[in-house]
Each structure stands twice: as structure tokens, then as C-alpha cells.
Amino acid sequence: MSHTSSMNVSMKIKRPLPRTAYEKNAVTYKILANSKRLEILNLLREQEMPVETLVKELGISKANVSQHLALLRHARLVIVHRKGLNAFYNIIDPRIVEPCRILHQLSLGGK
User: Fold this and answer.
1) In 1-111, which ranges are E strands?
2) To 10 degrees, what angle do helices 62-74 and 51-58 make?
3) If I label 81, which of 10, 31, 47, 54 is the partner at 20 to 30 A Cα–Cα?
4) How far lies 97's CA from each of 5, 11, 77, in Å?
5) Taking a C-beta distance cutoff of 8 angstroms, is the pair 45, 97 a contact?
6) Who contacts 31 (Cβ-Cβ below 8 Å, separation ≥6)?
7) Residue 7 confidence (pLDDT)
8) 3-class DSSP assignment, residue 46
């Protein structure tokens, strides 16, 4: 019997993340798979904004912006705080937009 045949064939492979992390990440990726939501996150990366400013910047209706923000809030990607009658939105962790920026750089040929 050769030495290699007696070795344990089922080596333990180190997993970078638990399987549940991939499932949770897939849900977040589905939320991020929308160009307007990515644009909102990238705008909020620079500064907090009220809904009205986002409406002007995005060129879509207030109702549509509010729907996107509700999804992002539910996914815990943005937070909202009120100042008087205005609701201001802010990104929770600016690193969430890094894949968007990396993909943009790759589309430019890595420059």
C-alpha cells in the first residue's frame, strides 16, 4: 500500500466565512443591485442629505427616493435623523460603496 493512499483524503479546508455570512451577503447584494441605490449610497458617502436634495440629485420622484431609502434603512445601510421637519440620511459605513468604486476602476482598464 502506498503512502499517499493511506493519507486522509478529506482534508479540512479553512473557510473564509461561515455559510450563513454568504446567505446574508446575498440579500445585501440584491439590495445593492440597483443603480439608484448605489448612487444614493455614493452620494451619502460624501455627506448626509435630506430627501429633497437626493430627489434633485437623482432626478427621480420623492416617492421613489423614499422607497429606496426605506430599503436601505431596513438593510441597515443608512440611518435617518430628524431636524425639525426635515429627515437627513447618512451612510452607516462608507466602506459599503468600495466594491462600486473598484468595479468602476476596473471598467476603466484598472486606471
Assistant:
1) 49-50, 78-83, 86-91
2) 110
3) 31
4) 48, 36, 10
5) yes
6) 37, 71, 72, 75, 77
7) 54
8) helix
Quick one: how far is CA 107 from the chain centroid?
19
Taking alpha carbons only, the member of 72, 76, 81 closest to residue 49 is: 81
Q: Which of 34-38, 47-51, 84-88, 91-95 has the lowest mean pLDDT?
A: 84-88
The runs of H, that is alpha helices, within 33-61 are 35-46, 51-58
For 67, the grid coordinates are: 422607497
Contact 37, 71 (CB under 8 A): yes
Is the four-CA dihedral 73, 77, 78, 79 of positive or negative sign?
A: positive
Fold classified for 19-107:
Arc Repressor Mutant, subunit A (1.10.10)
Q: Which residue type, as a one-letter code, is found at position 34?
A: N
